[in-house]
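Exercise 3.2. Students should predict the tertiary structure of the chain below and write it as C-alpha cells, then compare their answer with the key that follows.

Predict this chain's 3D structure.
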Amino acid sequence: MNLIDFADKFPDEESCKQKFKELREREGIKCRKCGHDSHYWKRDKEMYECKKCGTRMSLKSGTVMHKSKLSFRYWFIAIHLLTSTRKTFSAKEIQRQLGHKRYQPIWHMMHKLRNAMGKRDDIYELCGEMELDDGFFSTPVSEQEKDEPLKRGRGSQKKTKVLVMAESEHVDHPEKGKKSRKVAHIKMKVIEDLKADTIDTVADECISKQAHVKSDDSTSYVGLSKKVEQHVSKVIPKEDINKELPWVHIAITNAKSWLISNFHKINKEYLQYYLDEFCYNFNRRYLINNLFDRLLVACVTSKNNVRY
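Answer key:
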C-alpha cells in the first residue's frame, strides 16, 4: 500500500482494531490456560472468553502487542512505514511522525516488530546451493569492555561477529553484465565467537541437512561437513573473495550501508533485531506490495520475548 491507500483503509483506531481481530480469528486463538481453541467474543469487554474454562484474553494478548498500551493505529502506522519503503525508520523518527511524547514505548514497539520479522524467518531453513562466511559489524564498546585495552583486527571490541548465509545457485548463461550466480534467501546471525561449535549450532538452526555449502577454508567451518550433505571449502585469495562468494559479501556490504545510513549507532545486544529487519525485507524483495499484510500476520502469530 502507498500512503494514500493506507490512510483510506485504516483511517482510525476502530478500523485497525477490526483488521487485527479479523486476522486473529483467521489464524486461530488458543486459550493461554487450557489450550482450547474455541472462544466467545465479549463485545462489552472487548475480550475473548474460552468456551471450556472461561479464561479471558484481550485482543492483544499472545501477540506482538502483548501488554502494549500503545494504540492499534500506532502499531499499524509503524508497520506501514517499515514495509512501504526500501529504507527504514529509526524509533526517533517514528516517534516524531506519531507525535508521541515518550521515546521509550516507541523504541520497544520497533524492536518487537523487528523481533517478529526474525521469528518469521526462523521458521524456514536455507537449502540448496549456499554461500557462507563471517562478517564484522561496527558497534560501540560495551560497558563491561570499556576499561580493557582496545584490540585490533578480528578480535576488536568495536566489531561484532555475524555469520552470513545466502542461498546462491549457478546461472549457466547469464545475461551480459549479470552475475554468474543468483541469490534467493539470506540469514544473518550475531555470534559470540568463531569457534567451530558455535558455527555448528547456527548451522543446525538455519541450514537444511540437504544443503550444499561453499565457504573458505577457515577452521571455524570444519564441522559443517557433518551438518550438511556437502561442504566445499577452499583457500580463497582476498582479491577473489567477491567472485567465489559474491552474494554473501554483497549482503554484508548492503547491510552495513543500510545501517550506517539510517542509524546513529547500534549496540551489540540489539544488532540482531536490525539484521532481522534487513533480512526479512531482502527475502521478500519481490513481494513489496504484500509486505504490510505479511508482517501483520507475523505480528498476530508471534508473541515477543524481546530483552531490554
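Discussion points: Residues 104-122 form the longest helix (19 residues). The two ends are 32 Å apart (CA to CA).
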